Amino acid sequence: MLFEYPSKDDWNELISSIPYEKLAVSIGDFKKKGDSLNDFVGNLQIETWLEHLGHRLFDVQKSYVMLMYYYEKGIPDDEWFISPGKRGESIEYFPHFEKRHHLIKRQFDYYVDVFYYKIFSAWDNIGHVLNLAYDLGIKRVSFKCVVPKLKTSNAGLHGRLHSILEDDNFTKASDLRNTVTHNYLPSQVGSAVTRRGDTVFFGAGDYIPSKVIKDNAAETVNLLVKTLDYIKG
């Protein structure tokens, strides 16, 4: 149960829920058109970044399939606490869980962490390619810092990619990724204790149900596909 892997049929069914065939890139999508030495060197650098991007795009697909695989095994956490608990405790977390559900969720949470790390790495990788393709000269590259700089080089592409950054699902995914990295895990119950000055409050800790995360992961993959479609024209 703890370390299961989907069968070939399971994999094909799960991967078909996203337009995975569009999660691919080639040098022709980004190649600089000139014949100068700068263009030649730039294309060599772009090819290297595209090779890395290809690996990350595959990792996005794999981690997405794996989190979906474990999600579909069942994680009954829509109601993630009850108060009072079945044994009279003030709060009971995950009241519908059996032992197996904790094992399933542990694997789901792991692949969620990997997924958000890999998908934002892919976006930043795209930022590096755009930085080279448009000679933006950005030193500390990320997708978020590259998009505004495209406005003077390619206003149309800037507008389309800006819509990705402004999408509610992108914002939610970015928040989840940052929370996973720097704060309480959103897929685990946070602190039940809140302090305001000298006053201490007790209650249910913050938590994001698995379905909310699963739905956002699917929408985030679609946004990455849109990003690549916009760039390819």
Provide keyphrases for this structure.
233 residues, mainly alpha, two-stranded antiparallel ribbon, 5% strand
Walkthrough of the structure:
This protein has one domain. It is 58% helix and 5% strand. It has seven helices and four strands. It has a two-stranded antiparallel ribbon. α3 runs parallel beside α4 (143-149), α3 crosses α6 (168-182) and α5 (155-166) packs antiparallel against α7. The radius of gyration is 21 Å and the shape is elongated.
Give a topology summary.
Layout: H1 8-15, H2 37-71, E1 81-82, E2 92-93, H3 99-133, H4 143-149, H5 155-166, H6 168-182, E3 193-196, E4 199-202, H7 210-232
Helix pairs in contact: 1-2, 2-3, 2-7, 3-4, 3-6, 3-7, 4-5, 5-7, 6-7
Summarize this entry quickly.
By secondary structure, the chain is mainly alpha-helical. Helices cover 58% and strands 5% of the residues. The chain has one domain.
Topology pattern, helix = H, strand = E: HHEEHHHHEEH
What fraction strand?
Answer: 5-15%
| Number of helical stretches of at least 4 residues | 7
Shape: elongated
What is the total tally of β strands?
A: 4
